[in-house]
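Tokens as discussed.
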């Protein structure tokens, strides 16, 4: 099966569906300039995954960062592992530091985290090597690939809601001493209960992620629910080292510039996948937006030579009166996004429309997560999703 390309044009979920329905066995490699991950399949099911050059996914580092093992014991285990050639997990069991079940659970979690992390990759070259099996997999799982697709898509949608509640990265979290809720009304999941033991009034969100024994997404979700349940609260900011003060106006504009340009590129890509790059209907429709500030949002690949210049865009924005500049920009972009999605429906039908929305959601997940402080302060995410809902409402009216 000759399957290769880039996640810009074929989503990770689409690749998984192809391999699952075809009951394929082999190795899927996905890489960017700085990261490479491998996912192994057997008759369409995921059986193993690894990160080739990401130390945070390695078993020893994962156990160390989550407080499961001391640095001294880990160093001893690594030395023995190198001397004997036995897998690190097997060595840890031989040293009586862990039992087989504990190592198996850690490895399963590691594999799941690697796979689910790939759903957030906006780009990356991929190639599938049919028939190639893992050479040194210490532990194999059997994950139903279609269930993984459903869970990965659900996590992207859920992540959007979670981000609205999570505090900035420099905020310290603590357990509420006197919750304004009856004790019999408190219902905690096992994940939330476990996490409470790590929230000590001294750790920030990134620090809780690093020590949590659970996966990253599960930890974020548990914190989100504990905050909503008024059992955990922010108790102040961590004093940071003196850094150069950021130009907030420029930072906001850079976020918006990247966010919308990348989204328009995804919409155009969905149309081109179906109709071909030579079809002129979508470019003709998009030409109406080539004026004023919207000229800087042509929907081109960010790595292309045709990508617009942020510096020129910032110069044009700065020329507008301060009181109206943000409103003028956002009203134009929101209209453009809504109308392009609606036109995507006219061209491709409901399937193409949904695909465009899913790709846009995936595209914006990472930039929104990186700057939660600005996103909240300027209601960027809220306005973005209102625009998508507006387009969805129009499509529903047209469909009856």
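Sequence:
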């Amino acid at each position: 099966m000759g399957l290769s390309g880039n996640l810009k044009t074929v989503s990770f979920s689409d690749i998984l569906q192809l391999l699952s329905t075809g009951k394929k066995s082999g190795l899927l490699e996905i890489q960017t300039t700085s990261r490479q991950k491998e996912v192994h399949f057997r008759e369409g099911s995921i059986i193993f995954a690894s990160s080739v050059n990401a130390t945070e996914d390695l078993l020893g580092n994962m156990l160390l960062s989550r407080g499961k093992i001391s640095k001294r014991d880990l160093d001893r285990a690594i030395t023995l592992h190198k001397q004997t050639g036995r897998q690190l997990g097997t060595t840890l069991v031989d040293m009586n530091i862990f039992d087989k079940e504990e190592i198996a659970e850690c490895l399963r979690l590691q594999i799941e985290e690697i796979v689910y992390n790939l759903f957030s990759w906006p780009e990356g070259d991929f190639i599938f090597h049919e028939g190639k099996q893992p050479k040194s997999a210490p532990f194999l799982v059997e994950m139903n690939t279609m269930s993984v697709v459903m869970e990965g898509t659900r996590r992207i949608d859920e992540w959007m809601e979670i981000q609205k509640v999570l505090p900035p990265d420099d905020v310290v979290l603590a357990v509420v001493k006197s919750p304004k809720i009856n004790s019999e009304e408190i219902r905690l999941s096992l994940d939330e209960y476990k996490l409470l033991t790590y929230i000590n009034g001294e750790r920030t969100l990134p620090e809780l992620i690093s020590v949590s024994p659970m996966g990253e997404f599960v930890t974020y979700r548990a914190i989100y629910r504990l905050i909503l349940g008024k059992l955990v609260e922010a108790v102040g900011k961590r004093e940071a080292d003196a850094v150069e003060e950021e130009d907030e106006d420029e930072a906001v504009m850079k976020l918006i510039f990247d966010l919308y340009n990348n989204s328009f590129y995804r919409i155009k890509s969905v149309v081109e996948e179906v109709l071909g790059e030579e079809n002129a209907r979508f470019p003709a429709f998009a030409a109406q937006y080539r004026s004023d500030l919207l000229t800087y949002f042509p929907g081109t690949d960010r790595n292309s030579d045709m990508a617009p210049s942020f510096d020129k865009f910032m110069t044009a924005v700065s020329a507008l009166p301060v009181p109206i500049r943000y409103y003028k920009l956002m009203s134009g972009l929101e209209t453009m996004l809504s109308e392009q999605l609606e036109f995507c429906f006219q061209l491709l039908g409901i399937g193409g429309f949904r695909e465009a929305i899913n790709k846009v959601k995936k595209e914006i997940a990472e930039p929104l997560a990186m700057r939660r402080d600005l996103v909240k302060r300027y209601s960027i995410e809220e306005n973005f999703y209102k625009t998508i809902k507006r387009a969805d409402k129009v499509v529903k009216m047209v469909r009856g």
